[in-house]
Amino acid sequence: MSSPAEKFLKHVANVIAERCTQYGDAADNMAAIAVRWSTTLGREVTAAQVVLCLLDLKLARLAHDPTHEDSAVDVCGYAALLREMTETSNTEGH
């Protein structure tokens, strides 16, 4: 039998897959957001910084309501995306 944490992480994996279908490749999406934020802020923003800012947003919401499941799901999803993005860039850089 799966633990609650394992069930939660399986749910997160399903959400990641659903969002990929809805919005396309997450790394491409974060890169597109980075371009927009760079224009808005007048300074370069990287895709990884976008993910970190979105993580901060979700963590701030969880600080207000630690029981909000959607924010917890998003934190896990963004953390996984950040890991994927940094691992891909490290592999390409070598």
Walkthrough of the structure:
The protein is mainly alpha-helical. It has one domain (4-93). Helix content is 84%, strand content 0%. The chain is built from 4 helices and no strands. The protein has helices spanning 4-23, 26-41, 47-64, 69-93. The chain is globular. The termini are far apart. The mean pLDDT is 93.
What is the gist of this entry?
The chain has one domain.
Total number of distinct structural domains: 1
Briefly note the structural class of the backbone.
mainly alpha
Amount of beta strand: under 5%
Uncertain residue segments: none
Order of helices and strands: HHHH
Largest sheet report: none
Number of strands: 0
Task: Give the overall form.
Answer: globular
Q: Counting H and I runs of at least 4 residues, what is the number of helices?
A: 4
Residue-averaged pLDDT, rounded? 93
Secondary structure: helix percent: over 70%
Cα distance, first to last residue?
41 Å
How many whole angstroms does the radius of gyration measure?
Answer: 15 Å
Keywords for this entry:
mainly alpha; 4 helices; globular; 94 residues
SSE inventory with pairings:
Layout: H1 4-23, H2 26-41, H3 47-64, H4 69-93
Helix pairs in contact: 1-4, 2-3, 3-4
